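Q: For a teaching handout, I want to show students what a protein-ligand complex looks like in token form. Below are the inputs, and the small molecule is A1CAB. Please produce the holo structure.
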Amino acid sequence: MAACPSKRQMMSEAINLAVIGGGQMGRALVSGMLAADVVQGDHVRLVDRNPASKQWWATNHPEVVITDLPAAVSDSDVVLLAVKPHGMESVAKQKGRFWNKKLVMSVAAGVSLGSLGQWIGHERVVRVMPNTPCLVGLGACGYCVPEGFPDADIAIVEAMLGAVGISVKVLEKQMDAVTGVSGSGPAYVFLMIEAMADGGVKAGLPRPLAMQLATQTVMGAAKMVAETGRHPGELKDSVASPGGTTIAALATLEHNGFRSAVIEAVAAAANRSRELGG
Ligand SMILES: NC(=O)C1=CN([C@@H]2O[C@H](COP(=O)(O)OP(=O)(O)OC[C@H]3O[C@@H](n4cnc5c(N)ncnc54)[C@H](O)[C@@H]3O)[C@@H](O)[C@H]2O)C=CC1
Ligand SMILES: O=C(O)[C@@H]1CCC=N1
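A: Here is the structure, written as tokens, with A1CAB included.
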């Protein structure tokens, strides 16, 4: 295995990052990392086969160099693979000396460390499940690494992911569940915000005001759970006055299976992640 730079070196030296696939997740991660200054734009090489996607990068991050895969990987310390799961094999199997034991981070749902290592031809690979709030520095990333993975590389991974939110090292067998909770999770919360705003509009509020109130409510509630250390059930009870408005709403949510719908949604995403892994 190639000698790896120390965490101190990585923190003080610019990371040369190749990004293969600059779609939704690639954009969220790299935009977040650029904003957090953990990578610099002129040290990022972007590869994408979609002209519209390349145009997005040219417009939004003009300092990023748009190039092809061999050049991007050759010029990098770290390679971020962010194409769809079914496209990962053809990208990772591209033959060439340019892979040369680069640190490769894949964000593809379901794609195992074993497959990645086999396709790329070495085991300096990390499987990450990020989420789109990395864009605003509030991502939740789970990642796993092969046995014997060097601490210096873990330090690099944590420096990069930690710059855009929290990062937790998990067992590979937990990655599908991580996908169900946090990888896909933002979509459930966006749906909730949209639905709450719809409810506000139904009750007579103008749409922008309903959206503002719903968004701030979700943000405030999440912050209370994170910062008070109190159980969400206890916080929920503290909102519900006897005979009041909240318990009327909660009874309706329970009647309509809200809790089990969310539990089953997380399980469905985890199962789908397992299927994608083949
Ligand atoms: N969107 C999300 O919230 C999350 C996505 N992921 C994972 O991130 C990966 C990417 O997903 P999205 O960004 O949502 O998809 P996307 O479709 O928005 O982006 C994929 C990009 O890869 C490009 N691409 C495809 N084949 C390529 C190739 N051979 N060479 C270069 N570029 C190529 C496409 O043109 C596209 O711009 C997937 O594997 C997904 O499982 C993981 C966590 C969350
Ligand atoms: O929907 C998907 O497959 C990807 C993986 C996790 C979130 N988005």
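A: Two things your students might notice: Confidence is low (pLDDT under 50) at residues 1-9. DSSP finds 13 helices and eight strands in the chain.
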